[in-house]
Amino acid sequence: MYPSLVYLNGAFVSPEEARVSAFDRGFVFADGVYEVIPAYGKRLFRLSQHLARLDASLASIRLSNPLAAKGWGEICARLLTANSADDQYIYLQVTRGPAPRDHAFPAETRPTVFAYAQPLKYPEPAQRAAGVAAITVPDIRWQRCDIKAIALLPNVLMRQQATEAGAAEAILLRDNLVTEGSASNIFLGFGDTLVTPPKGPYILPGVTRDLVVELAHAHGIACEERAVSENELRKADELALSSSTKELLAITTLDGKKVGTGKPGALLTRLYALYQDYKRDFRAGKVD
Ligand SMILES: Cc1ncc(COP(=O)(O)O)c(C=O)c1O
Questions:
Q1: Residue 1: predicted pLDDT
Q2: Alpha-carbon distance 71 to 93, whole Å?
Q3: Average pLDDT, stretch 43-68?
Q4: Where does ligand 1 bind, in terms of residues with CB under 6 Å?
Q5: C-alpha–C-alpha distance, residues 240 and 186, integer Å
Q6: Nearest CA residue ID for atom 5, ligand 1
Q7: Confidence tier at 80 by pLDDT (50, 70, 90)
Q8: Ligand 1 centroid – CA 148 distance (Å)
Q9: DSSP state letter for 284
């Protein structure tokens, strides 16, 4: 479903009224970046972290941020009023704007800024209780996966492969190492120890990932950010994916085989509960 209201280049309009040039470099070259920011009780969650990542993505593609943090905050706040739902997410994207087709940057840049809000759809309780299926696929992406780029064709193809296999996510393997999911980061549980691949050019620095690591440290749970081999992936007691919209979701089968007992495990279930506690405190205005 389309949202009823969108923001485009300074105006709040209906999706039908929102028009972008066919020569927009976002359309022609996928020359742009994006963010997805959850809002609970209409409050934007981890806004400064998302805006910092947006800044980093924009700096990486050498495009200056068209808006200051205050401007982004105001746009998001207005968009959140368009839906009645308490829990929503903001999608925003910035492209290098319209210009005659040429790979090199245009002399003058007029970035296109687009954003909207939609109600958050949480995984069904039954799905959360059972966990989801994942498959492994070769990571066919480029060498700057740390940029939240709108060029998502490899991610689209890998996710489609998972969907056709009846799985919820594709876990990506590069040079025998686990990177992340097609639209998520990955956590592994080995006994009482949480493990997640380290940040670097081959993964997106997930805001949810960072919070899960933060919560583990705050609650004395052993947490290692280190390279994970394919072999280890297949031996993990527990697996979970993390993202702003899925939060922390157990993966209970991998390539058709049970992960651990085949049920969400104790360690990642505990971290999910800590995440929910944190959200509750956030709604109550106790944490940022
Ligand atoms: C490739 C990829 N990795 C990780 C994530 C998780 O990032 P976040 O927790 O900031 O939503 C996403 C989110 O969409 C993603 O697309």
A1: 87
A2: 14
A3: 98
A4: 36, 180, 183-185, 204, 206-209, 242-244
A5: 6
A6: 184
A7: very high
A8: 8
A9: T
